[in-house]
Amino acid sequence: MATQRNPLVIGAGPAGLTAALDLVHRGVIPRVYESSDHVGGLARTPTAGQWRADPGGHRFFTQHEEILDVWKQLLPHDEWLAVPRRSAMLVDGHLVPYPLVGRELLTRLGFRSGIRGAGDLMWSRFRRGMRAVEKEQTFREWGIEEFGKHWYRMFFDGYVRKTWLSDPNNLSSDWANQRIRPIDWRRAGKRGDTDDDVFRYPRLGPGQLWDAAAATLADAGAPPSLNSPVVGLHHDGRQWTIELQNGETATGDAVFSSMPLQLLVHMLKPAPPKHIRAIAATLRHRSLITVAVALSEHRDIPFNWVYTPGADCRVGRVQNYLRWSPALAPEEFTGTYLGLEYFTVPHDDLWRADDQTLRAIVERDLQVLGAGNSSIEQLMIIRSQFAYPIYESGRERNVVRVRDYLRQNQPGLHPIGRNGMHRYDNQDHAMLSALRSVGRYFGENVDPWLVNTDPGYHETGLLRS
Ligand SMILES: Cc1cc2nc3c(=O)[nH]c(=O)nc-3n(C[C@H](O)[C@H](O)[C@H](O)COP(=O)(O)OP(=O)(O)OC[C@H]3O[C@@H](n4cnc5c(N)ncnc54)[C@H](O)[C@@H]3O)c2cc1C
């Protein structure tokens, strides 16, 4: 039975590679098509000589044993680092540790700010307590309720505007509970490295894991085909045919697709009804430009990540790469290696800026951040077009309508992963949706769309052996 199966996988990011690995594990050889010249998708490790960069700062953590098992099988124990999580927000010239700690908020930003923040928070909590029914909230409403007006404005309003490129009044709060940790009132300012504060990280960046996955697939006779964008998808009632940009085609009994959901719908033949295409067209993404920049001067920054909500610089977040893994830089390097993250959309000036213009923006931001006097030894620009599915109001309903249409009309088509399901997945959820989809293909009673629907905060128990 298994030998009659010939599935096709679109995309060699975490979801596509995981689907392919599981298919191989079950005795089926898939064909994997990847549009770019690398595997790993958003979680790749771009390189320039001995320099490596992480496009997004990928913390590896999961609450799912089966994902942990995949990670452990792909990379040996000594290739994993245990990295203490240290983030901060740069506000009014102060580095405030994040997730926010109550005692720090009350003391670090001055007495008046502390009192005001605490007063606003109590008022918000009182109002929440008085609310009779739960209702859908915008991000701004959620933020004020969770942090009080003063601390919401100080830490989140500017940051969300800069990173989501949207007014917080127009953003839904669906993702916020999962991603933003509440204020910790129990802990003192200094953190101990409990399991909650430590994540795993491949020594050579996130792509090391996905390169290992691709090597495993190649050994099994299923190497991903790189530089192979899928541009068409046709179902003739019996089998699937995908069309590649170079004109080649491939046929199969099922398709696992991690390409953006709206593009998938747009490519399908026979074309879905007009209203489904219109709904799919509303699903949009934000893009990310990461500039990895090595500075000659050494700075001891005790954080892996610094969020920069201020309007005085354009960068939204800065990674301190050597706190992730020293192996991201050449061994002899003694300076500071940063990853400046710029959030953008494909039609704005930043996305269209050439390398020289971007370099000028980076140099200006480094001045604002106080690192302008150090010479730049190395600079690498990484563009990720489909970085973040945008959570606009109505997104959930629209995704469900597309999902239901595909389920009813194309049961052999399995959307998987972050963009494939238009959901704000981390790697583990993208992988899990792939595993569940393969399970469904084999007739198991599982639902990939139920992955990542837990509204609670995700990052507990990050480091589990
Ligand atoms: C800034 C940032 C920070 C992040 N931090 C973390 C973190 O700390 N921890 C964590 O676990 N996750 C993190 N993530 C999320 C993580 O990157 C994603 O969850 C993961 O990469 C999703 O995998 P995927 O395979 O679903 O999608 P992708 O990684 O997007 O891979 C999809 C692949 O499909 C290919 N493709 C698209 N269209 C086509 C086509 N038509 N034909 C062929 N191939 C195609 C793409 O080129 C890509 O390689 C972060 C993401 C970002 C942007």
TrEMBL record:
Coiled-coil intervals, chain numbering: none
GO molecular function term, any single one: flavin adenine dinucleotide binding
Highest rank taxon of the organism: Bacteria
InterPro entries: Amino_oxidase (IPR002937), FAD/NAD-bd_sf (IPR036188)
Gene3D superfamilies: FAD/NAD(P)-binding domain
Domain Amine oxidase, first and last residues per copy: 15-394
One cellular component (GO) term of this entry: cytosol
PANTHER family in the record: UDP-GALACTOPYRANOSE MUTASE (PTHR21197)
Name of protein: Amine oxidase domain-containing protein
Natural source organism: Mycolicibacterium parafortuitum (Mycobacterium parafortuitum)
